[in-house]
Amino acid sequence: MTATLTFDDMYQAICRRDSGFVGVFITAVKTTGIFCLPTCTARKPKPQNVEFFDAPREAIAAGYRPCKVCRPMEPPDRTPDDVQRLIEELHAEPALRLRAEDLRERGIEPSAVRRWFKKHHHMTFTAYQRMLRLNRAYGDLSKGEQVAATAFRSGYESLSGFADRFNATFGAPPSQSAAKSVIHLTRVSTPLGPMFLGATDAGVCLCEFTDRRMLETELADLQKRLGAVILPADGNAHLLQLETELQEYFAGTRRNFEVPLDTPATPFRQQVWNELRTIPYAQTRSYAEQARRIGRPAAVRAVAAANGQNRVSIVIPCHRVIGKDGSLTGYGGGLARKQWLLNHERRHASHP
Q1: At the top level of CATH, which class does the domain 186-349 belong to?
Q2: For 81-179, which CATH superfamily applies?
Q3: What is the value of pTM for the model shown?
Q4: Any idea which fold 7-72 has?
Q5: Are 257 and 245 in contact, with CB atoms under 8 Å apart?
Q6: Is residue 318 annotated as part of the catalytic site, yes or no?
Q7: pLDDT digits (tens, 9 = 90+) for 174-214
């Protein structure tokens, strides 16, 4: 259940069909057994027949099915148009500083934007803008640009303010920008809900559903292993390639991913993850079989644990490993998603 909004807030939002709440919560109707987007054009239910969830996954787990009118499992509507335009505007010119009054002039409610960014990027809209400016500044400095020119081009009014913010984020002054690496992070929509994608200059290091329980732990581990900071993506080539390949995968036209990976881990985990990538599309293996294939037949539990620590889901297909008895067993994205992925691959494997 969404904790940051009251029932009345959400009910009034669906009555207005407010697009600013798309991706913030899901509406479930007890009398029909369906769940919808806040913008659904179907007849509005009575308040006593409504239940709210944070994401489609929770509604599915509670026994609801997606609405055929607003299609809440399909990605195009996951990011509100107003928010998408803001993101595109900022990426085109990161030095912009859009304040609440600027949003109102565009006919956008600032509180809805703030909630959306907190929900999907785990930061406020103001923090997102600041981090995007720093990301661009880091890239310029890494290319040999002068500190003063970079600071003013990035929208900072003083060198001291730029240096303080840069040092607080990267743990080093601007003059030492080459000492830190960056994990570029973006959010994309998929038929199974939004995902976070992360990449360094070497390759993709993260591909996870945003409601993954271990996501914060995974990000902290990545930062430690790579000695990196996390910033909003700004044209990272590996992320652009992964977005395209994911779209093709969900469309049923791609079976193998080609994007480079950057997955720091222990040698054992790397061995397990490498073996996962040998499982053919639409096929499955048991944990025991996977353990045998890496020459560690007694390490079934350790193999299962390493599968669970995979940070690049779908690309490294841990969803293709099942129990010895054919049961789905665990999956970080939830068993409903695991079943969906297996069904999706089997369906498209039969229609080459």
Answers
A1: mainly alpha
A2: Homeodomain-like (1.10.10.60)
A3: 0.62
A4: DNA Methylphosphotriester Repair Domain (3.40.10)
A5: yes
A6: yes
A7: 544 554 678 888 888 887 778 889 999 999 999 998 777 77
Output the CA–CA distances (angstroms, integers) from residue 116 to 39, 78, 245, in the order listed. Answer: 15, 11, 26
Q: How far is residue 147's CA from residue 136's CA, in Å, rounded to a whole number?
A: 12
Q: What is the pLDDT of residues 228-277, one digit of tens each?
A: 877 777 678 999 999 999 999 999 999 999 999 999 999 999 999 999 99
Rounded Cα distance between 179 and 171, Å, is: 9
Please work out, in degrees rounded to the nearest 5, the angle formed at the alpha carbon of residue 113 by the alpha carbons of 108 and 117.
160
Q: Residues of CATH 1.10.10.10 domain(s) within the chain?
A: 186-349
Q: Which residues contact 32 (CB under 8 A, 6 or more apart)?
A: 45
Q: What is the rounded distance in angstroms from the CA atom of residue 28 to the CA atom of residue 38? A: 10
Tokens of 58: 């929770």
Candidate list 36, 70, 205, 318, residue with the active-site label: 318
Q: Cα–Cα distances in Å, from 302 out to 205, 296, 298?
A: 22, 9, 9
- CB contact at 8 A, 197 and 207: yes
Distance CA 55, CA 42 (A): 19
